[in-house]
Amino acid sequence: MRDLMSTATALTRIDRDLYESARAFPGSATERINRWARIGRAFETKANVSPGDIERVLAGTYPYDALGKPEQAIVQSRWREGIADDISKLDFAAEFRTRGESWSESDAADNTIICN
């Protein structure tokens, strides 16, 4: 008999900001959240992973190169999350409008458009 738990899914609630962060990455949000959960599980079950060292690297007080491969993977994941979050908050058009400046951009046909 086939193990039904190996293919079953379970409904759970997650924070909206986590879901929105997952949507910012390629692929589905579900795939990304599952990946993060697997990384978290590995992180919590590996005795050789140092959460303190990871936090110090993220704070800029410990060298990245001093980490082992598992810790580096976690740091890289956290950096990507932070970068995706920062990019999602960018609104250059609003900044230019606030300063009363114009800007140019290309449309779908690669024509230059002046905006203000």
Could you explain how this protein is built, in words?
This protein has one domain. Helix content is 53%, strand content 7%. It contains five helices and two strands. β1 and β2 form a beta hairpin. The longest helix has 20 residues. The protein starts with 15 loop residues before the first helix and ends with a strand.
List the total number of helices: 5
Radius of gyration: 21 Å
Summed up, the domain count is 1
Can you give the helix content as a percent range?
40-55%
Report the sheet with the most strands, covering strand number, pairing sense and barrel closure.
Answer: 2 strands, antiparallel
What would a concise description of this structure say?
The chain has 116 residues and is mainly α. The protein has one domain.
List the main descriptive attributes of the protein structure presented here.
mainly alpha, two-stranded antiparallel sheet, extended
